[in-house]
């Protein structure tokens, strides 16, 4: 399960909206919380108790799940609020979601960047209503509920209302307009109307004292009558929410089609930045879906930070930096470079305000920043951006924060001992030191760069020379085999430590199951003993986890890009499909989908290195619009292959790159610099059914440390 949802979103926008059942992990659907095996069903049908705003995309057990401001069209009494009705005739497209409720109400939702517009078509009924529940939040699973801390709600009359609810320490404000001519408008509390009441104030709410509350519009409905509800959102108060609503709806009444068309055009502008020729319909559908999923998060709420007063970019839902830094951020840097720069600006500001770069960052206050998962990952994105000469960032100030962050959390132990447990943090911190050294050297701070580079080569402390694998330790969502094939900055030394090319390739072959018996996959609610047997195989999990996304490309560094071609081809063919279960693991805020996009193009970005590894693309021709330039990947000898259950009755054999040219000149290496890609050009790959020696001799660059290459002269 990819853990995505079909709700309405805008590219990298602040707001999403979707049917709400309370299921895990987005609030949509019918599955219970699950981290191993096939997910259990929480509900027998696809259902909804209303439509909520702000959903995660592709995450797992992150503990905070949003689903704020539930809007419910009803023909039942208010006592039935919270009841779920079956969904029928669902329809989803970028920026739009629609479904019919059992009650006979047709529900449609679209969103802009900071607004949502609901349109409900009612059956004939003497007392229809639209209920806004401002107390709603989280999921209907154990420990999944979100409880507001404070709230204010005001019914202003004439179809207008406003309110602020403090959720997870963040003040979420709304300004609402409803086209409900002749309907009554009022506030309610604990499913009871408050006649004559226009305002609710809650100074302190606890789980034991929380009762639902909100707004209501009620009146007779004719068959086919349409009600439109427009909501502007802000993290800086109701007045800014009102301005956001006015800016995107521009006084249009009704505004639904206008907002929908604007969001559709924004999606078209983004999706069109990757063009492909050829491919089966299923493969093209999966690629477009992957690109769409890769552009939902992070959420950008410009000028909306509730934690600092100044204007500028504010990004949240960077929920899985340990996934997206490898694949999605490089994709944003290519096709949405301004937003990639805004993301880095926002991360620098978070570091300023909170003392460290976040590993994950949601719309929430507090120190819950996922530090167990990883350390110092923003440094890779900053190093890549600096190497590409991205303007708009004060690099001297960025370097100050990069250096300071290396001493936070696990960084202090790394500084003192050169080794940290969990052992993967040793790799994180060593790599971050290398990335920071690159920026320091470019800024002419040679003494700092040398010191950082020296410490960066303490990655070797993480490995056991006797096995060529990582030392025994605790591991997050994996084991030492999963993490032992990460792409380090000195892969030549890493391979030598594993026994040279032959020893390294043998370990990779074992990890990927060459010559091994097929593995039986776990089913629903597998027993711990069954899972333990699976983990003990020390095998590739099929793109189910962050370290496995880059492991297939480690073969490049040992001179075997043909092995990479076989594994990536198999993954693209069998692990992705067009159905609801079409992803092999959590999409993790677009990290996995971005992997699919890159792999389909025959590219893999090595984050922090300014490097792309080359492989067989899945399409005969592709064009990547990089800023104002275009990078074209074209092939000769390409063969179309179906995917998944698309009528396939046998394994299609992989194809291999047999030779290559870049802008008409022979290319003998299986890698390119990021500069080559970003400045545009034409890569031609000649494909065939058998591997050749192409890419075997010239390895991707490694960066051994020697003081000789950088004089330790004090910076003047």
UniProtKB/TrEMBL annotation:
One example of a Gene Ontology biological process annotation: carbohydrate metabolic process
One Pfam family per UniProt: Glyco_hydro_92
Molecular function terms, GO-annotated: carbohydrate binding; peptide-N4-(N-acetyl-beta-glucosaminyl)asparagine amidase activity
Domain Glycosyl hydrolase family span(s) in chain numbering: 240-688
GO cellular component, one term: cytosol
Annotated Glycosyl hydrolase family 92 N-terminal domain residues: 2-234
Stretch list, region Disordered: 693-716
InterPro entries, per the entry: 6-hairpin_glycosidase_sf, GH-type_carb-bd, GH92_a_mannosidase_put, GH92_N, Glyco_hydro_92, PNGase
PANTHER family: PEPTIDE N-GLYCANASE PNGASE -RELATED, PUTATIVE-RELATED
Protein name: Putative alpha-1,2-mannosidase
Lineage: Bacteria, Bacillati, Actinomycetota, Actinomycetes, Micromonosporales
